[in-house]
Amino acid sequence: ATSKLANQLAVLLIDMGKFDEALPLLRNAVAGCRKRYGDFHPVTQTRIKNLALLLSKIGMHKEALSLQKESLAALAAVRKKLGDIHPSTLTSIQNMASLLSEMGKEEEALHLQKEVLAAQRETLGNKHPSTLTSINFLALLLSEIGRNEEAVSLQKEALAIRRETLGGMHPDTLTSIHNLGGLLLKIGKHEEALSLQIEALAAFRANFGDRHPSTLLSISNMSHLLLKTGKFEEALPLQEEVVTAQRETLGSKHPDTLNSIYVLAVLLSDMGRRFTALSL
Q1: 69, 100, 202, 211: which one has the fewest Cβ atoms less than 10 Å from its Cβ?
Q2: pLDDT category of residue 15 using cuts at 50, 70 and 90
Q3: Are 264 and 280 in contact (CB under 8 A)?
């Protein structure tokens, strides 16, 4: 339990950018898992992956690479003991794929992630939540190396299944809508992306209310998309709504609020309202 709590707290600290505070907690989490489960257990390997990612992020590449080599050895041992399609093997493969991706080795990660997805389609079926998670991750990897059309195809598959099995309002469905919309925007399919963003925003407002961080992110995404398509007048009230809500909930000096104010100022300037922009 202590190891689990240390890991959870470390993840929160990483999200807050407090890497120095997170590092000793992750080290403790790894040590606790090694003692309780052993070096090759999927939980231990997940903790090792998290530690290696943080070490890589803060520039401690030598130690990160050492952990990567250990994870490769662990993966080989798990394959030998349990076989290639055992759930624990697939977890280990996915951990390695995630680690390789974060370290900039997308092609190696892609090969492993394809293996995971093929095995999960075979053993769990296309509609299993784990399969859908793997589809999303593979789509992300494909997008990172510029294979966007393949990524879009996978994201459309995941979204269709989640609409069917979970409904349009489920958080996982909304995640799929967001992922697909981002990809479509990236490849210039703005109108299709806009249609999805309208759907997502309506669902976020209905599910979480207007002031929830997820709703505000969705509003901001919608504003950005409208800006990309030159619809400044439609983007403006949405960006103003974001700024007002963040000032109210986060305060005027919060980084997210300041970023939103900057976006609003740029929008106003582009619309020829420079004096209003300067007053922000």
Answers
A1: 69
A2: confident
A3: yes
